[in-house]
């Protein structure tokens, strides 16, 4: 017995809305330019915004939790609604992991120290800072998960000729986010300051835009759903 087309359309619309809203919430860091926050966006990481003791921690932590609460069920819905193809399945699982890691990010804020682009908890350029600060671990898991999701869904878009918007706008955003990530990884090992705060904001902004674009892409009615394919 298959689901009715109307129910599938409603479910896909809810999924798309969850993805887009998650993207909007993940861009809550933009509020740093509106709220009276004393932070240098050029040379500080976004983790400082919801560190313990920060005046607007509740705002940014709540936004991250909403992202996770939206993406975890959205990823499960994606697995149920769309055809079970290898690359898209990897993407949905990675997206679920990203949602879970984002919730952990909000629940494991910075405590003992605040890392800067050149100094991590445990000392300058500490080996494996994730072992010194749980927040660094959850953040690393989140970034790795969304990277896997972005790559997997992009491969699926091209290989299975699905989600046309991901093959154009989504790919451009993925390239932008990847460039910002490379910027951070390379510059972090160099002496001097290389505006790593800006690089991270471009990276996180790219993630937000990609989620919104993906939300729009899944509404493509030509997409095959699991009810139409065993």
Automatic annotation (TrEMBL):
<feature type="transmembrane region" description="Helical">
    <location>
        <begin position="66"/>
        <end position="83"/>
    </location>
</feature>
<keyword id="KW-0812">Transmembrane</keyword>
<keyword id="KW-0472">Membrane</keyword>
<feature type="transmembrane region" description="Helical">
    <location>
        <begin position="165"/>
        <end position="186"/>
    </location>
</feature>
<feature type="transmembrane region" description="Helical">
    <location>
        <begin position="136"/>
        <end position="158"/>
    </location>
</feature>
<protein>
    <recommendedName>
        <fullName>DUF998 domain-containing protein</fullName>
    </recommendedName>
</protein>
<feature type="transmembrane region" description="Helical">
    <location>
        <begin position="90"/>
        <end position="110"/>
    </location>
</feature>
<dbReference type="Pfam" id="PF06197">
    <property type="entry name" value="DUF998"/>
</dbReference>
<keyword id="KW-1133">Transmembrane helix</keyword>
<dbReference type="InterPro" id="IPR009339">
    <property type="entry name" value="DUF998"/>
</dbReference>
<feature type="transmembrane region" description="Helical">
    <location>
        <begin position="198"/>
        <end position="219"/>
    </location>
</feature>
């Amino acid at each position: 017995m298959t689901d009715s087309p109307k129910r599938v359309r409603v479910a896909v619309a809810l999924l798309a809305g969850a993805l887009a809203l998650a993207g909007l919430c993940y861009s809550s860091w933009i509020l740093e330019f509106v709220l009276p926050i004393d932070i240098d966006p050029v040379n500080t990481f976004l983790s400082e915004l919801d560190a313990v003791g920060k005046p607007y921690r509740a705002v940014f932590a709540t936004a991250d939790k909403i992202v996770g609460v939206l993406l975890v069920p959205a990823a499960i819905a994606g697995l149920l609604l769309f055809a079970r193809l290898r690359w898209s399945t990897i993407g949905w699982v990675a997206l679920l992991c990203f949602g879970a890691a984002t919730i952990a990010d909000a629940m494991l804020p910075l405590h003992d120290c605040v890392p800067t682009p050149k100094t991590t908890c445990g000392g300058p350029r500490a080996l494996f800072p994730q072992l010194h600060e749980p927040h660094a671990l959850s953040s690393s898991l989140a970034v790795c998960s969304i990277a896997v999701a972005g790559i997997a869904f992009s491969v699926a878009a091209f290989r299975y000729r699905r989600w046309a918007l991901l093959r154009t706008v989504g790919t451009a955003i993925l390239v932008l986010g990847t460039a910002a990530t490379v910027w951070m990884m390379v510059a972090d090992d160099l002496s001097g300051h290389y505006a790593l705060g800006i690089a991270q904001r471009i990276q996180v902004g790219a993630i937000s835009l990609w989620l919104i674009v993906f939300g729009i892409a899944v509404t493509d009615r030509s997409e095959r759903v699991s009810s139409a394919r065993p």
